[in-house]
Amino acid sequence: MSPQTVDRKPAPYELSISRLIDAPRRKIFRAWTEPALLAQWWGPHGMTTPECEMDLWVGGQFRTLMRAPDGAEYPTMGVFLEIVAPERLVFTDAFIPGWIPSGKPFMSAEVTLEDRGGQTLYTARAMHWSDEDRQAHEAMGFHDGWGQSLDRLVTLVTDGMPD
C-alpha cells in the first residue's frame, strides 16, 4: 500500500491545508525538492527565500532562510525523515544533519501528493510536539501563511515552470 492510500487520521497537535491543484504531482514534487524552485514560492506573499539548501536523502538537510519585507529573517533547519517520489515528503526540525537533536523541536511536516487524473490533491500537515506549539503556530498565521505559500506554489507549477 503506498503512503498516499493509508488512512491518515489527524495527529493530536496538527494543523493542515489541502488543495486540488491542476498540475501533475511530479511537477509539484520537483517544486518541493529542487532548491532553486522552492526558493521561488516558499513563504507568504512579500517574503523572499534568499537561501535554500537541501540534501534529498533520509537524514539530509532541509534549510531555508525567509526574509520579510522589513528585513526580518526566519531561518529553519531540519532533516528529511521520508522521501517517496513523487508522493510524499516528511521532514522535521527535531534534528539537524547528523541526527543531532536540535534542542527545541517545534514540528514535523508531511506533504502528500495524490494523483487525481492529471490533477494533484496536495496536503501539507504540520504536526507539533505540544498543544502550546500548535497554538503558537496557528497564532503566527499558519493557515494564511501556508495558504499564501501554496498560492505561490500553484502559480509556479501551473504557469511558470516547464515540464
From TrEMBL:
Domain Activator of Hsp90 ATPase homologue 1/2-like C-terminal: 22-157
Record-linked InterPro entries: ASHA1/2-like_C, START-like_dom_sf
SUPFAM superfamilies recorded: Bet v1-like (SSF55961)
Gene3D superfamilies to which the protein is assigned, alphabetical: 3.30.530.20
Protein family: Belongs to the AHA1 family.
Name of this protein: Polyketide cyclase
Species of provenance: Pseudomonas arsenicoxydans
